[in-house]
Structures are given as C-alpha cells and as structure tokens.
Amino acid sequence: MRIGVIGGGAWGTALAAVAARGDQPVLLWAREAEVVESINASHENSQFLAGVALSPAIRATGDLGELAGLDALLVVAPAQHVRAVLGATPVGGTPLVLCAKGIEAGTRLLVGQVAREAAPGAPIAVLSGPTFAIEVAAGKPTAVTLACKNEDLGARLAARLAGPAFRTYASSDVIGAEIGGAVKNVLAIACGVVEGAGLGLNARAALIARGFAEMTRFGLARGAQAETLTGLSGLGDLVLTCSSTNSRNFSLGLGLGQGRSAAELMADRKTVAEGAFTAPVLREAAADAGIDMPVTEAVNALLEGADVGSVIEALLSRPLRAEAV
Question: How far apart are CA 281 and CA 252, in angstroms?
C-alpha cells in the first residue's frame, strides 16, 4: 500500500517515519520549501523534528498534484486548513486517514465531515490517540485508535501502519474517535492553566476527571460510543496532553496561567495549538445543544482575555451537584 502524507510538521513527519518502516516508499507533502529541501537533502525535518534521522524511503514534495494515484493519504494538515488542502489535492477515491484533531470554525463540522464535503468520493478513516510526535518518530511504544466504517479497509490500513512499537486498535466509531481528539485539546489548555497558576496536582486530577465528563456528555450527544471515549482516542489522549509541556495546548494554557495573553502566546508559535481554535466552536455547539461544559467556557474566557483568578473563582463557586456524568 503506497502511502502519502499531507502535512510536513512534526506529527506528519513522525507518521511518515511510521509508514516508511522497512524502507517502504512514502511521499510527504509540505507547505514549507525548507522542509522539503531538508528531508530530501539531509533525511531530517530540521524545522519541526530536528535531530530525528528519517528513512531515505521518505521523499518530500511541495506539489499536491504528486499525491495522485497513491493507495492512501494521511491527512495531517491543521484542522482549520483541511478543507482548503483537500480541495487542492487530486484525491478522487483514495482513502483518507484523518490525523488532525479539531472542529472547523464557522461550520462546526468535525474534520471527517469536512473531508466528506471536500472529497466526496474518498473513504474516510480516523487515526487518533495519545501520541507525542517525537516519541513516535523515535520508535517508542505507542498505541492508537484507527476508526473506519468500512471494517475491511480499516483492517488493511491498521495492518499497513502497525509495527512492533506502533500498535493500532480497530474501531468503527469514527465520530467518537474525532470528538475525543478535538475536545481533549481544549481540556489540555485548562490543565496547563492549572499548572501555570500553581494550583497543584489535586486540582489537575480533578480537572481531568470533570473535563472527561464534559467530553462524554458532548460525545454521546453527537452519537459517539462510550467505549470509544474511554479508550485511546478519548481518555488516553486526554491524560497524555493534560500532563506534559510537550503538548502545544498544555503549553498554551501554562502561559495563560502565568498571566500572559493568548495573542502574545500564539504569536510566539510556529506550530498550531488546535485547542485555541476549537474552544469557541465547541462552546457554541455545546450551548446550542444545551450541553453543560463549564471547563470549556472557562478556557474560552481566558482566551478572550479574562483574568485567571476570576475565572478560577467562578469555576470553584459553581453550585454543588451530583457527580453523575
């Protein structure tokens, strides 16, 4: 199965390394000319994954047209750019494995729904789970969910990407896999705020638990399966990204908790913290559906410039209630 990767950031490069295991050829598209040059000349993505040696079987290109005719495409462009990138790619009926996590602003569509509109002839799968790119690229043990409605296609994709240190678990719950990945980005910002504000480990653990309750309420309302949300692409990814500065979203929250503004923090970044774009869309979708998501509301308030102390006080002073999800 000939694999192409759309997106030359750290995660796209790490997935190219996974797909190139055993010197299987992989074509990676990157927007940045310097990334293309670095990979082809030095077998390294010096801009986004410096120090990681890549297989010579990975070839980079800046021309989306070269992706035509491959057997599957891993879509690793940021969620807000997936529609435009797929619209410029000769997808046809090529299966798309969506690896971006988020909800499109304006439409409130999950990435899979965006892909169906942008490439209506392409079968859709979703790859999600607790994955830091640097660890995946280094060959450290990782497990992910690969969700696909077509079980035969899902099994073939899972087998193609699986390896001794990269374990793929099959699922048919595409919506659940997507919602887990999108919502956890917002919750990771909140956990970063807890760290930045020095609120302690008790507070972070409580926030992860109550945040997971929000993820579950929203996911079930959108048709996700509870088992998916408690699995790798839900709870597993949530625990990882809420616990480390390797998470771009956690790092953004860390800065907010220390009193820096969202505008300042986002301007400093060459990589995308998807949660900052997902948070307002998630808040709107939850409000329209009557779903209570106070942590999401708090993250939005902080992104809009609210005082950290006031937001935390408002969360802690909410009326007491039963713990039921």
Answer: 18
What's the rounded Cα separation, in Å, for the pair 62 and 66? 9
- String of b and e for 209-246 (b: at least 16 CB within 10 Å)? ebbbbbbbbbbbeeebbeebbbbbbbbbbbebbbbeee
Instruction: Return the active site residues.
Output: 184
The whole-angstrom separation of Cα 265 and Cα 269 is: 7
218 and 183 Cβ atoms separated by less than 8 Å: yes
Cα–Cα distance between 141 and 131 in angstroms, integer? 10
Separation of alpha carbons 242 and 249, rounded Å: 8
For residues 221 and 291, is the Cβ–Cβ distance under 8 A? yes
* Token pair recorded at residue 50: 């410096």
Which residue from 211, 219, 290 is spatially nearest to 249, judged by alpha carbons?
211
Residue 185 corresponds to which tokens in the numbers above? Answer: 């980005």
Contact by Cβ (8 Å): 1, 64? no
Provide the 3-class DSSP secondary structure of residue 67.
Answer: helix
pTM more than 0.90: yes
Q: What is the pLDDT along the chain (325 residues), one digit of tens a residue?
A: 999 999 999 999 999 999 999 999 999 999 999 999 999 999 999 999 999 999 999 999 999 999 999 999 999 999 999 999 999 999 999 999 999 999 999 999 999 999 999 999 999 999 999 999 999 999 999 999 999 999 999 999 999 999 999 999 999 999 999 999 999 999 999 999 999 999 999 999 999 999 999 999 999 999 999 999 999 999 999 999 998 999 999 999 999 999 999 999 998 667 778 999 999 999 999 999 999 999 999 999 999 999 999 999 999 999 998 887 6
Contact between residue 311 and residue 298 where contact means Cβ atoms under 8 Å apart: yes
| Rg (alpha carbons) of the chain, rounded to whole number | 19
Residue length of the chain: 325
